[in-house]
């Protein structure tokens, strides 16, 4: 127990330190759902996203992923993830990496804005980040010992159709998820839906930390939809998660989301945290260094 608490405290301290780094920009409150907004071209964003949970018949865990996102073009954002987890009365393991690319074919704002998403995952079955929920994913998958699950490789291709809209200050986002293990396993399906809104639409004339427009609140709904052989919600995991984000005057932002399972296969409760930093003009500064 003590070892787990020390590791948890260390992760939270790292998150606080990241908050203190001066930066510009921020992101929405979602953890699983993607909206249609892309990273600014030439900007680099770094984030940490811990999640705490406990399977019904397993030990409490702290999983986290670190994300590095770069705006290549206005229509192209690429992102790299490293992830790991520590489980009480078990061990701490590195669970792999992910490389994603998002492409927005229509740059101008429309009633519905589509984004195409492609990701390669090289992870193992010890992963507990729950960055997406597909197929018949279950909380029981996270109850096994790390020594067993880390030996099971999961090289996968994940694609998403992301649809996003802005309606009177509300962001409305819908994701359809299609995931395929690079073996003879069938395609697995999932979804994520999200809505959020700033607490105020009008910006204050002066920069401030506690202005209402700096806070966004909303909710996510996500879960599995079975696989190619059986498209269904029966026997799947389903979650509902209120989300709140806060962007400071210097652009630093952080998020929190208490997450509630709605089926027997779901975790009963998860708590997610997130902190991110955006470094505007990063690409330009790098090019200047090498001139």
Give structural notes:
The chain is mainly beta. It has one domain: Beta Barrel (Porin). The chain contains 3 helices and 13 strands. It has a 12-stranded antiparallel β-barrel. A hairpin with a 2-residue loop joins β2 (61-73) and β3. The longest helix has 18 residues, at 2-19. It starts with a helix and ends with a helix.
Q: What descriptors fit this protein?
A:
mainly beta, twelve-stranded antiparallel β-barrel, 291 residues, globular, Porin, 49% strand, 3 helices
Number of DSSP-assigned strands: 13
Query: In the CATH classification, which architecture applies?
Result: Beta Barrel
In percent, how helical is the residue content? 10-25%
Q: Taking Cα atoms only, what radius of gyration do you get, to the nearest Å?
A: 19 Å
Number of helices: 3
Strand order of the largest sheet: 1-2-3-4-5-6-7-8-9-11-12-13
Distance between the termini: 53 Å
Q: What is the assigned CATH homologous superfamily? A: monomeric porin ompg
Give the averaged pLDDT, no decimals.
90
Structural class: mainly beta
The amount of beta strand, in percent, is: over 45%
Q: Regions with pLDDT < 50 over 5+ consecutive residues?
A: 4-26
User: How would you sum up the global shape?
Assistant: globular
Order of helices and strands: HEEEEEHEEEEEEEEH
Characterize the biggest β-sheet. Answer: 12 strands, antiparallel, barrel
CATH topology: Porin
């Amino acid at each position: 127990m003590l070892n787990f608490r020390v590791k948890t405290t260390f992760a939270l301290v790292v998150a606080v330190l990241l908050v203190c780094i001066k930066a510009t920009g921020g992101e929405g409150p979602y953890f699983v759902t993607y909206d249609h907004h892309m990273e600014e071209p030439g900007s680099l964003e770094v984030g940490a996203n811990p999640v705490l949970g406990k399977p019904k018949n397993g030990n409490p865990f702290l999983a986290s992923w670190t994300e590095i996102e770069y705006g290549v073009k206005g229509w192209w954002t690429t992102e790299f993830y490293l992830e790991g987890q520590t489980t009480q009365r078990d061990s701490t393991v590195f669970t792999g990496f992910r490389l994603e690319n998002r492409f927005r074919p229509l740059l101008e704002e429309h009633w519905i804005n589509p984004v195409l998403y492609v990701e390669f995952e090289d992870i193992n079955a010890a992963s507990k980040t729950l960055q997406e929920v597909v197929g018949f994913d279950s909380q029981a998958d996270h109850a096994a010992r790390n020594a067993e699950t880390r030996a099971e490789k999961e090289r996968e291709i994940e694609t998403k159709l992301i649809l996003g809209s802005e309606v009177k200050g509300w962001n409305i986002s819908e994701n359809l998820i299609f995931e395929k293990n690079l073996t003879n396993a069938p395609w697995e399906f999932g979804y994520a839906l999200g809505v959020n809104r700033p607490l105020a639409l009008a910006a204050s004339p002066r920069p401030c930390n506690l202005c209402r427009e700096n806070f966004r609140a909303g909710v996510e709904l996500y879960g599995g939809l079975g696989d190619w052989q059986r498209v269904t919600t029966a026997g799947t995991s389903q979650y509902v998660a209120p989300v709140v984000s806060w962007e400071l005057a210097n652009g630093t932002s952080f998020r929190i989301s208490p997450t509630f399972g709605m089926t027997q296969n779901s975790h009963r409760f998860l708590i997610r945290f997130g902190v991110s930093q955006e470094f505007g003009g990063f690409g330009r500064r790098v090019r200047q260094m090498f001139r």
